[in-house]
Amino acid sequence: MEYINVVLFTLLISSGSCHGELNFKTLDTEVGPVVYVNLLFRHGDRTPITVYPKDPYKDISYWPLGLGELTKEGIYHHFVQGSWVGKRYAQLLPKNRRYHQSAIRILSTDVDRTLMSAEAHLAGMFPITEEQKWGGIDWQPIPIHTVPEQLDKVLAVKHPCKKYHYEKEKLKQSAVYKDLMKKLQPLGEYVSKYTGEPFTSLRIFEYLYSILLVEKMNNLTLPEWTESVFPDQLKVLAGYSLAVPTWTPEMKRLRGGPLVKEILENMKKKIAGTLEPPTRNISIYSAHESTVSAFLNTIDAFDFLPPPFASMVLVELRKTAQNDHVVMVLYKNSTDPTIEPYILTVPGCSAACPLNDFEALLKPIIPVDWDLECQHQENVEPALNQRFDSLAIFGFLLFYNFSINLHFRWEFRKTFFNPAKIIILFA
Ligand SMILES: *[C@@H]1O[C@H](CO)[C@@H](O)[C@H](O)[C@H]1NC(C)=O
Ligand SMILES: *[C@@H]1O[C@H](CO)[C@@H](O)[C@H](O)[C@H]1NC(C)=O
Ligand SMILES: *[C@@H]1O[C@H](CO)[C@@H](O)[C@H](O)[C@H]1NC(C)=O
Ligand SMILES: *[C@@H]1O[C@H](CO)[C@@H](O)[C@H](O)[C@H]1NC(C)=O
């Protein structure tokens, strides 16, 4: 029961102050200017990463760029996001938003679409100045750092970790998870029948949502069987599937923890003057939907919706009039430059959270020595099952009556999108 009380408590807090009392436009005067920003984004629109066995569009001729590659729309959207970022943080950049190595560092996962997204983003962020013209097109090369996937323990969120896989297995073996899978069985079988993909985990819904969304965005007509499940039901399940890798505190610590730790350290080093170089004002991380959802869920600010293409999390360090440092987390999940980002709140703190409080709150999910913690082994304790209660609530709510029924879905949406209400109903 203890865990569920924590969930109840945190959801009540976060839903109450979701948008905060702060106004996005006046943060500089209300809170204080930004002195450092960490930017984590998902790559832009891409072709499907994979197709399903019975996919009418599985022929590669539908995807001339190849699978999982950034499209023209993806390039454009990141260019637009980059211009928005450049304008918003112009005071952190050299005059005229001129690119200079001392102001920024960019890290990308070692994947074509994230590397390309970072390039498009930077082209929008740093319009070439007169003195930077070099005799060709109005574009300049900007360095993007990367780490091979097998060595990436921070951004790719899939580096092998024994303890993590053990924790994940423990979740999957828990009675409530098994019960959830049982409740999902009818939907799983339905989807499995038409896709030709076996139903073994929630991942099938995540993959399918992502494939159908891309096909729809490419103006392909979706098969009739998808109408009852796409987009609404699959979107909700895809969102939950994205939260599963960071479901428990232990999983958060080992999966999302390393990136949260790095971002926190960037800000602390900025204040201490120990960044390399100390003049650096911006860190950019170009990654995936799984990275964005892991980061947000690890700090308990995830909305359980799949992060759209080119969505961005902005972790700002601001300096108040009293010379204190506060952290703000913003989420820009739209590529429309006129749509303001959402101000997220880490449960237990205010939207402008004092850095020390932010660090103290997140301490339990920050690994001290990730490699060492990953080695750790222990035996399964059946008593731990109860901490998965919140998953059971979700399962119950969603599959209480799995019949595809518009009224039900509407009721469900109304309830689902208000987590506090779910908890009140079932606590
Ligand atoms: C970093 O931001 C400060 C303002 O907070 C600015 O004075 C400084 O020039 C910026 N650094 C670089 C390298 O542009
Ligand atoms: C899909 O159709 C819309 C409306 O005709 C068009 O604006 C858009 O460019 C098309 N998208 C693709 C990827 O062809
Ligand atoms: C964007 O994020 C906000 C806050 O989490 C959420 O309410 C909204 O539905 C999201 N929109 C999209 C398109 O994901
Ligand atoms: C589920 O809902 C449908 C439509 O509202 C109804 O016909 C059906 O009997 C319900 N099933 C159960 C098990 O309650």
Automatic annotation (TrEMBL):
What is its EC class? Answer: hydrolase
Q: EC?
A: 3.1.3.2
Name the family: Belongs to the histidine acid phosphatase family.
Pfam families for the chain:
His_Phos_2
Listed under catalytic activity are: a phosphate monoester + H2O = an alcohol + phosphate
Protein name, UniProt field: acid phosphatase
Species of origin reads: Nesidiocoris tenuis
| Keywords on record | Disulfide bond, Glycoprotein, Hydrolase, Signal
* GO function term, MF aspect, one: acid phosphatase activity
The organism's lineage is:
Eukaryota, Metazoa, Ecdysozoa, Arthropoda, Hexapoda
Where is the signal peptide, in residue numbers?
1-20
